[in-house]
Amino acid sequence: MVLQEAITHFMRFVQFEKKQSPHSCTAYESDLGQFSSYLYVTYQVEQLEEFNHLQIRSWMAHLMNQGISARSISRKISSLKSFYKFLLKQEWLTQNPMQKVQIPKVSKKLPVFVEEKAMGELLEPSRFTHDFEGLRDQLILHMYYGTGMRQSELIGLKMQDLDLYKVQVKVLGKRNKERIIPITRELAKLSKEFLEIREAEGIVSEFVFTTNTGKQVYPKLIYNLVHNRLSEVTTIQKRSPHVLRHTYATHMLNNGADLNAIKELLGHANLSATQVYTHNSIERLKEVYKNKHPRS
Length: 296
Fold this sequence. Notes:
Largest sheet: 3 strands, antiparallel
Number of strands: 3
Number of domains: 2
CATH superfamily of the largest domain: Intergrase catalytic core
Oligomer: single chain
Helix content: 55-70%
Strand content: under 5%
Shape: globular
CATH architecture of the largest domain: Orthogonal Bundle
Distance between the termini: 66 Å
Order of helices and strands: HHHHHHHEEEHHHHHH
CATH topology of the largest domain: hpI Integrase, Chain A
Structural class: mainly alpha
Low-confidence stretches: none
């Protein structure tokens, strides 16, 4: 079978059967496309049976020479592993060349988060105008910090998912897995205010967050909002929406929340993904010890 044809079948599999997120599908397509192009240009071969572990290692070396980070290379190799696992399952190959390929070691980075004092400043009502866009932007920041949801989950949040009576939101996460997240009375009150002004503006949409013309908000709008607002209250270099998800989890843990509960709230598939936040808490404990212990 031709490699490009196999990639097309794999993409249908991850999109329609595995129901991976659009972001994950884009990453798979990009990684496998780069792999396919490199092998064709370098070795002039297209058939699956003609590729082996030496050529995959050659691609890794090529990526390293281009200055691609170990983290990015690791992700690309993970994409290849998933691809070859699919090929074996379909019985289009009998041997897996990935068994002889090692993923480069990646140093774990602690999640970047915003300090509680800075978050208090960020959410101060006086920072926002009391019109449609002002209340929307304020609610977006509150929703991130109050639920820890992902960007795709926030953008896809629908009116039917927001239950102000039960004070909770229903989130559609990765692989279409639903979860319920409780929200604060403050967040529920702000949501009510926003929906009232949205209705007064005549905006009708199935989605909670829209532009002033009623169109669903988009990633660039959300990123710019979070980045610009965080720039006003913190000097941390990374100021993306995902930082607010990290902030939610870190603050919950620092204030005594159970790790398993945080796992469920974040929608993590396994506890290992959540445990990274314990490192931030340990660093916080070290700082407290350093500042408060009489012999430190």
